[in-house]
Amino acid sequence: xxDELSIDSKALIFATLADVYLSSGMxxxxxxxxxxxxxxxxxxxLAKIILGRAYYMKGETDEALKLLEAIYPEAKDSENENLFLxxxxxxxxxxxxxxxHYEAVLRxxxxxxxxxxxxxxxxxxxxxxxETAAEVKPEPKAEAVYEAPSxxxxxxxxxxxxxxxxxxIKEVVLPEGDITxxxxxxxxxxxxxxxxxxxxxxxxxxxxxxxxxxxxxxPTKEETEPEVHVSWVExxxxxxxxxxxxxxxxxxxxxxxxxxxxxxTETAPPVREEEKTMETLIAESSVSEEVKRRIEALAAAxxxxxxxxxxxxxxxxxxxKQKAxxxxxxxxxxxxxxxxxxxxxxxxxxxKKEPKxxxxxxxxxxxxxxxxxxxxxxxxxxxxxxxxxxxxxxxFDRLNVPMEKLLSMKTVNAAFISSRDGLLIKxxxxxxxxxxxxxxxxASIFNEALESFKFLNEGPIEKIIIExxxxxxxxxxxxxxxxxxxxxxxxxxxxxxxxxxKIIDEIREVLG
Amino acid sequence: xxxxxxxxxxxxxxAGTVTYDGFIIDSQFTAGYDAAKFGAMAARIVGQxxxxxxxxxxxxxxxxxxxxxxxxxxxEHVFFTICAKDANLGLIKIKMDKAK
Lengths: 512, 100
Fold this sequence. Notes:
The structure holds 2 protein chains of 2 kinds.
Chain A: H1 2-7, H2 13-23, H3 27-40, H4 45-58, H5 61-70, H6 72-75, H7 79-91, H8 95-108, H9 113-124, H10 133-136, E1 144-147, E2 152-160, E3 179-181, E4 196-198, E5 226-234, H11 278-284, H12 286-310, H13 330-347, H14 384-392, H15 400-407, E6 412-419, E7 424-427, H16 435-456, E8 461-467, E9 472-478, E10 481-487, H17 493-511
Chain B: H1 4-7, E1 12-18, E2 24-29, H2 35-53, E3 58-64, E4 67-73, E5 78-84, H3 89-98
Antiparallel strand pairs in B: 1-2, 1-5, 3-4, 4-5
């Protein structure tokens, strides 16, 4: 309820919350929340009645009387209004007015046992009454007896503006802890003896022993501002007693004409036990359990609200930085390493021209004499690429010519060959230092796209063109390798692919 | 730009827009092609490219053995088109570049 109240400050739920506070003896809190709620809903009659009751319980009878009298014209048909007015007048020793209001209570609800009892009490009282309220208070007597009700139930009835529309059903006023000295009046109609509590100190007992049973009649569709009518009802043990359960009320949750199904009333407390202490009565009473349950629920709700307000949101899980995944198969790495080693060895010494060495992918051995020619065809001079390869001894040298043609284009910035794992195979852009990083990133993108297209069953990827604002990256698959060409945005991709085709063929032949 | 300007090009199999979450905003595909799948793939690839290369806007063209896939990154969504390999890719690219 506290949560709902915090969410909707105009919610009428504050009356129910105040009801719970009153039930648990938290008078100041109840008065505070009622004042606050009435400041926002000044025409909420029921809240005023509850506030009057709170004042009465707190001992501020004049304030309670002033409040209850102010709303009497519009709430004169309210059982509780009359009941608490009667209590106030009785406390102020104005027994005539008290009797009048108690009779009004009985007119509204003839079964109101509390009103009956009060009228009975007033009937046996002497004619002369004390002049002041202070004299009303009974003096401490050793045998002062408090008649505790057998069972007390709290009913909250959500009334619709007019409280007269709420049909009071067997509502009996909660005894306000009236102390009657040496008075033992068992309920004759119930046929059972009420538990009698002997109290040595006579001041009025706060109405903390209440059973938290709340009946809620929710508003109809056309009535927008339901009022919560809380009446304090002493429950009979008869089967026909209507049992209603309190429900957390919010305007949004309220369904028109809906009454919440009710749990069965708790078993009436033992009525033949005598001389029970108040604590024992509270502990044994189902009323106190209900109040405890409410208090626990309120405490939990407040704790949650406080936790939400003060809690720190969990830190978002740090997104792991993507790292280029460059696993290398052992065989492939070995082959590439061998080739690269051979390339390095070939580049270092001054080369001698060995025209008769066709490309075989292996290092030429200059020491070995060439086999004697058998046919003249074998003696023909090798092709230029073969001659160049033979000169350097590196298979990649075969790519030099087409790659130079590609790089000679004005719109081409750089190019490199990498494996699909992201390892750089051959770099034709010496001026760029980030080629290795780009190689890994391109391989990552390629593999991502490859997996996506596998999912779509659209075949393997042949080419990817990634257009950035300042350059375009063309990635062309060449067997198990990738040829990446960096071009300017204005480059003609068709022309790039034409030039790249020759390179791709060479790469496939060299690297497989 | 309307999707029909793309899809009316011969051998274009479909086009659409998708959020970076992979949810289709609008699409127009020929029968047999699942727009949601291509949209999700477009969002995935473009998102990967944007994250990897640290770019905000760009385009990706993927050539497979049967189809060509265009995806252009926009600030709030991805515009993608899929067409047969023998479609007029240049025309499609022009349309894609002009698409807002």
